[in-house]
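Project outcomes to date are best conveyed with an example. Our students and postdoctoral researchers have been running inverse folding experiments weekly, and each run begins with a structure described purely in tokens. The record below, which covers 234 residues, was selected by the lab manager from last quarter's runs and is presented without edits.
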């Protein structure tokens, strides 16, 4: 028996294009510009975006949904790795008529022929109805190892964009950028301390910012290493 289908997946409010940090001369500029403008024309109705965990793929897929909503269009974000217990035809069939479908972590369905067929059928429906499909993955198309040749071909023929890996200097700039957008000033020493002490994953670092935003406001304290150390018991 399949689980009851619930498609009102909660988007991260902070996952917007405005909150996506772009360093100077970054290759990511091209990917972001294509996604920003995807709904304005049919030049790129089907896009494949991939990058290592923490590179920002999920952020940009959700940003595309926020953008669609701001334009009065319907949109749906799903991370397929979280829905593998559902009926693929039933789940993806619910997306018919949605202006923009954003499917994340599609590497999770590789080798699962039922899911592959359902995704291929969804692609055809979206193409025939002149809607938009954005796929996110942690690997390039050639490494998906899909069993369905037609689906592999469709993914290969789409515009493909890779997000660059983040090093510690990138994470420092992102932390400072996101902190500033929250009204907090994070100097280099505090940011470096957080990166070393906390998990280096951006999701974990963003959670730390959430905690610091609340506690610093309550305590009326500036962000310093002693304050951060006390808050997280590091």
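After processing, the design step wrote out the following sequence:
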């Amino acid at each position: 028996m399949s689980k009851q289908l619930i498609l009102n997946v909660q988007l991260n409010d902070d996952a917007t294009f405005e909150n996506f940090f772009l360093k100077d001369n970054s290759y990511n500029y091209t990917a972001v510009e294509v996604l920003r403008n995807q709904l304005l024309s049919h030049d790129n109705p089907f896009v494949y975006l991939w990058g290592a965990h923490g590179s920002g793929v999920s952020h940009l897929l959700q940003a595309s949904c926020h953008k669609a909503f701001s334009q009065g269009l319907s949109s749906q974000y799903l991370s397929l790795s979280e829905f593998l217990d559902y009926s693929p035809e039933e789940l993806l069939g619910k997306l018919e008529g949605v202006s923009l479908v954003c499917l994340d972590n599609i590497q999770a369905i590789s080798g699962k022929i039922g899911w592959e067929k359902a995704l291929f059928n969804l692609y055809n429906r979206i193409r025939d109805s002149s809607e938009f499909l954005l796929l996110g993955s942690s690997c390039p198309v050639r490494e998906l190892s899909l069993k369905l040749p037609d689906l592999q071909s469709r993914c290969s023929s789409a515009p493909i964009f890779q997000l660059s890996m983040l090093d510690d200097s990138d994470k420092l700039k992102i932390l400072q950028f996101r902190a500033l957008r929250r009204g907090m000033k994070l100097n280099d020493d505090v940011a470096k301390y957080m990166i070393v002490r906390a998990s280096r994953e951006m999701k974990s670092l963003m959670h730390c910012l959430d905690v610091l935003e609340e506690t610093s406001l309550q305590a009326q304290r500036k962000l310093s290493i002693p304050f951060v150390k006390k808050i997280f018991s590091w």
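Confidence is low (pLDDT under 50) at residues 1-5. The radius of gyration is 19 Å. The training component of this project remains on track.
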